[in-house]
Amino acid sequence: MSKIHPSAIVDPKAELDSSVEVGPYSIIGPNVRIDAGTVVGPHVVIEGHTTIGKDNKFFQFGSIGAAPQDKKWKGEPTRLEIGNGNTIREFVTFNLGTTQDEGVTRLGDDNWISAYVHLAHDCQVGSHTIFSNNAQLAGHVHVGDHAILSGYAGVHQFCKIGAHAFIGMYTSLTQDVPPFVLVSGNPAGARGVNIEGLKRRGFTRPQIDGIRAAYKHIYRENLTLEEAKAALAEDEARLPEAADGIRAMRDFLGIATRGIVR
C-alpha cells in the first residue's frame, strides 16, 4: 500500500524514500529529497531545494523551504537542509538561504521545534535544541547544540547563541549569548548559568563549577572582554576537568560579532 495519500501532490521529480509517509493535501515540490522514515503530516508544503534526512516528523500546516523573506533574493537556487530525527510541529516556517550568506539554512538532528516557530533565511541551528511555541529567528542567526528558546523569544538577525544557552520567555535578543548562559528580559540580560540544563545533560560538579567561575569573570568582575579572555585562559589551564567548557566560552568571545548580552 502506498504511504502517500491520494490527495497529496508529489512532483514526479521529487526524491522520496519508499518508506516516507505523506499525509492528505500535502504538496512536495520537484527539488525536494526526503530520506527514510520521515513522516509528513497533512496540509504541509515542502518546496525549494530542500533536503530532509531520516526519521523526521512534520505535523500539519508547515511551510518548509519557501522563498526567503529578503528583498535581495532574486530566485537563486539556494537551499534548506534538515537533518535526522527532528520533531517539527504545526504552522512552522523554514525559509531557504540567500547568496548573501552560505546560501543554505540548516537544522541539525534531534531538535524539538514547537508550533509557529520561524527559521529565517541562512539560520544555522545545531542539534538537540528545543524551540518553544512562537520562538522566532531572524536571518543569519546561529544557534548552538542543546540551546533552548522559550516561548515568544525573538532573536535579531546575525545574533549567535552558544551551546547549552537558555533564552527565557518573551526575551528580545539583540546581542550574542555565550555558551551555558541563561538570559531573559526585554532588553535581554544575563541571569546566570543554565545549571539545571547542565545537570540534566550529565555535566559533573567540577565542570559546572568551572563554567560558573568563567561566568563570573565575564559578568561579575567588571573586566573588559580582553581581560575576561585572559582570565578564562588561566582557568582553562588551572581547571583541567572544566577546560572544555571554559574554552568554549573563551572561543565564543572571539567570534561574537554583535557584542554579548551583559
UniProtKB/TrEMBL annotation:
<keyword id="KW-0808">Transferase</keyword>
<dbReference type="InterPro" id="IPR037157">
    <property type="entry name" value="Acetyltransf_C_sf"/>
</dbReference>
<dbReference type="InterPro" id="IPR011004">
    <property type="entry name" value="Trimer_LpxA-like_sf"/>
</dbReference>
<comment type="pathway">
    <text>Glycolipid biosynthesis; lipid IV(A) biosynthesis; lipid IV(A) from (3R)-3-hydroxytetradecanoyl-[acyl-carrier-protein] and UDP-N-acetyl-alpha-D-glucosamine: step 1/6.</text>
</comment>
<keyword id="KW-0443">Lipid metabolism</keyword>
<dbReference type="InterPro" id="IPR029098">
    <property type="entry name" value="Acetyltransf_C"/>
</dbReference>
<comment type="function">
    <text>Involved in the biosynthesis of lipid A, a phosphorylated glycolipid that anchors the lipopolysaccharide to the outer membrane of the cell.</text>
</comment>
<dbReference type="Pfam" id="PF13720">
    <property type="entry name" value="Acetyltransf_11"/>
</dbReference>
<dbReference type="Pfam" id="PF00132">
    <property type="entry name" value="Hexapep"/>
</dbReference>
<comment type="similarity">
    <text>Belongs to the transferase hexapeptide repeat family. LpxA subfamily.</text>
</comment>
<comment type="subunit">
    <text>Homotrimer.</text>
</comment>
<keyword id="KW-0441">Lipid A biosynthesis</keyword>
<feature type="domain" description="UDP N-acetylglucosamine O-acyltransferase C-terminal">
    <location>
        <begin position="176"/>
        <end position="261"/>
    </location>
</feature>
<dbReference type="GO" id="GO:0008780">
    <property type="term" value="F:acyl-[acyl-carrier-protein]-UDP-N-acetylglucosamine O-acyltransferase activity"/>
</dbReference>
<dbReference type="InterPro" id="IPR010137">
    <property type="entry name" value="Lipid_A_LpxA"/>
</dbReference>
<keyword id="KW-0012">Acyltransferase</keyword>
<dbReference type="InterPro" id="IPR001451">
    <property type="entry name" value="Hexapep"/>
</dbReference>
<keyword id="KW-0444">Lipid biosynthesis</keyword>
<keyword id="KW-0677">Repeat</keyword>
<keyword id="KW-0963">Cytoplasm</keyword>
<protein>
    <recommendedName>
        <fullName>Acyl-[acyl-carrier-protein]--UDP-N-acetylglucosamine O-acyltransferase</fullName>
        <ecNumber>2.3.1.129</ecNumber>
    </recommendedName>
</protein>
